[in-house]
Amino acid sequence: MREVRLPRDLAGLAGLVLPGGESTTMVRLMDEYALWAPLRDFHARGGALWGTCAGAILLAAEVTGASPAAPAQRSLGLIDVTVQRNAFGRQLDSFTTPLEVAGLDTPFPAVFIRAPVITHAGPGVEVLARHGGEAVLARQGRVMASSFHPELTPDARLHELFLGLLEQRAPRVGGGAESAPARPPTLPGSA
Ligand SMILES: NC(=O)CC[C@H](N)C(=O)O
Asked: What is the mean pLDDT of each run of 10 residues along the chain (191 residues)?
């Protein structure tokens, strides 16, 4: 596992998690570090992607603001969904809830932090969970999008689901682990 900040960091990876944060800032950083084409190429070459919260916003085909007045935002278009940002209100309206997820026997503890919802899913998209009627977890092929933050709970079932996508569908991208640059292990960052 390694942090990906620059296009070259993608070499040798089979999957990529786009974390939560602030998607407007992340769009600017993707411009700054020229990540748009390499990320699309990573997907086209068989890489699996999972976006959580702001990461899900980045993967969506279309992004809308919480109000019609909010400006539209560019996105990668790697999963055929429309995502509405900040759909549950402000930071103070963040919450945790047990979520029924298709394929899991017991509810998943889902942490929503100023989270988006999926307002439209195309025909190729499987909606795996809803909260209050709104889609909050979806998958299309080897791309997953979750409104919530599975990394903030000890429950690893969605991580397992993602790893399953790598094993089943994604050959290693960019020449295999052996040819990836050697790096010291990194601790998870605060982003
Ligand atoms: N927890 C998060 O990732 C919040 C996402 C943030 N509200 C955004 O629109 O980008």
From this structure: 96 96 96 98 96 98 86 93 92 92 97 96 98 97 97 96 77 47 42 42
Task: Tell me whether residue 185 is in a domain.
Answer: no
pTM of the shown model: 0.86
Structural domain count, the chain: 1
What is the sign, positive or negative, of the torsion defined by CA atoms of 61, 34, 45, 190? negative
Instruction: Please tell me whether 100 is known to bind a ligand.
Output: no
Asked if 145 and 56 count as a contact pair (C-beta separation under 8 A), the reply is yes
Q: Which residues of 128-164 are buried (b: 16+ CB within 10 A; e: fewer)?
A: bbbbeebbbbbbbbbbbbbbbbbeeeeeeebeebbee
Query: What's the pLDDT score for residue 167?
Result: 64
Distance of CA 161 to the CA centre of its chain: 13
Domain that holds residue 92: 7-179
Is 124 among the domain residues? yes
In the prediction, which pLDDT does 148 show? 97
- Residue 147 marked ligand-binding: no
* CATH at residue 141: 3.40.50.880
Give the number of the atom of ligand 1 that is nearest the alpha carbon of residue 85. Answer: 9
Q: How far is the CA of 181 from the centre of ligand 1 (A)?
A: 31
Residue 184 lies in a domain: no
How far apart, in whole angstroms, are the C-alpha atoms of residue 187 and residue 88? Answer: 31
